[in-house]
Amino acid sequence: MIDVAVFASGTGSNLVNLVQNEELKNYINIKLLVCDNPKAKVIERAKELGVETLVFNPKEYSKKIDFEKMLLEQVKDFKYLLLAGYMRVISTYFLENYEGKIINIHPSLLPLYKGINSIERAYNNKDEEIGVTIHFVNEEVDGGEILAQDKFTVDYNKSLEDITQQVHKLEHRLYPNTLIELLRKEN
Questions:
Q1: Residues in domain Formyl transferase N-terminal (predicted)?
Q2: Using CB atoms within 10 A as the burial measure, which of 20, 97, 152, 163 is most buried?
Q3: Which among 106, 135, 168, 172 is annotated as catalytic?
Q4: Mean pLDDT score, 7-16
Q5: Is the separation of the CB atoms in 151 and 164 below 8 Å?
Q6: What residues are designated binding site for (6R)-10-formyltetrahydrofolate?
Q7: What pTM value is reported for the model?
């Protein structure tokens, strides 16, 4: 079993899903939540799950490299870093220290709709299909090697909120299954 850290900035539904996935527990131990938003709901959820938290406010640092150095020191013993709604771009400096070991979940069929508001942009564009991508993180925002994707056909009789919930259900299945598959190959 390997220790990992999860980076998140929002509600934490993917964190909860990863921690509670029974099969994934055979492969990883989520030891730390790293959060850059002191008001995020994910902090409360992590504490309820017994996951240690590291909360920081980027505005308290004069330069990005300063908080990234602090983060690297805190996560140096973790084999993988799992991004689950972490809303910061990771610098080349940080990536050089964790190359090939940072995995992200993104709510679109990359390379479509990189960045924020991906579901809304796909919905407003009337895309036939909307999906989720699990990928390694590299220097390009949402541009790393794709590990897995899944999708569904959009029913435009449903609201954006309904479609967003469908995407979250897909995320909650695809992320742990992709991690399990990746870790099985390593063992």
A1: 4-179
A2: 163
A3: 106
A4: 96
A5: no
A6: 63, 104
A7: 0.94
